[in-house]
Amino acid sequence: MLDPCVVVSVAQRNSIDKIRDAFVMERRREVPMTQWDDLRSMIRILLHDCVDRVVWDLEATGNFSISSARKFLDTVCLGAAEVKTRWNAFVPLKLNILLWRIAKDRIPTRLNLCDRGIDLDMLLCPGCSTIGESANHLFAMCPEVVLIWHRIAMWWGVTVPMHMSISALIGWVDEVALSLYSKQSFDTVIIVTVWMICCFRNKLLFSAPKLRKEDLFDEICLLSYFCINNRHRKCKMSWDRRSRAPSLAFNIM
Ligand SMILES: [Zn+2]
Known about the structure:
By secondary structure, the protein is an all-alpha fold. It has helices at 10-13, 16-23, 33-42, 66-78, 93-103, 110-115, 135-141, 143-156, 166-175, 180-206, 216-231, 246-249; strands at residues 235-237, 250-252. Strands 1-2 form a two-stranded antiparallel sheet. Zinc ion binds next to loops.
């Protein structure tokens, strides 16, 4: 039977007395009262006599906020990255976003696709075919890309991180002894290199003609010079001086 009293609060409707009355209704007298006692011991919800309202659990005030929702999505859905990525204003938006996704291991490598239940013909790295393709391997540890990182290091006159990983690459700029402007440009080169490795991998798998491995370093240099010369207002690099150490090729405006 429908309840004739529709103007009532949750606290009034779910009071202990109401529940008990429902539990020991005439037609349910066969239910032992011990079950009612057990149920009552489990009910620990305290309802106050106030106007009913929706409560947002993520804020102490109970009021909804965009910032608390964003923090929840960042921590629960995206997970925490090992290192924080920097926003580099000298490279296009999509390059910054790619690095951020890589830092959070949110790119469709073969191992990540397999973890999501996608059936693939092969899980090995398409570059070396020796180990499963993870983000760390693809961008930092594959023998093919390690050679690229060593050429970048020689170009800039710095040493590669002792233990190559995504975190080490992101933090590499903090470890090198370069001037402020050179560090900004070196960070640009790192992000451009990550982008070009991603492009090289995708072209290797999906397109023809493919980007040649021996052309990859020159493509990285070309795109790096383009980004620095077009977006860095106080720093320019001369293309014909690119064979020299980049820190010497900068013209601070
Ligand atoms: Zn590999």
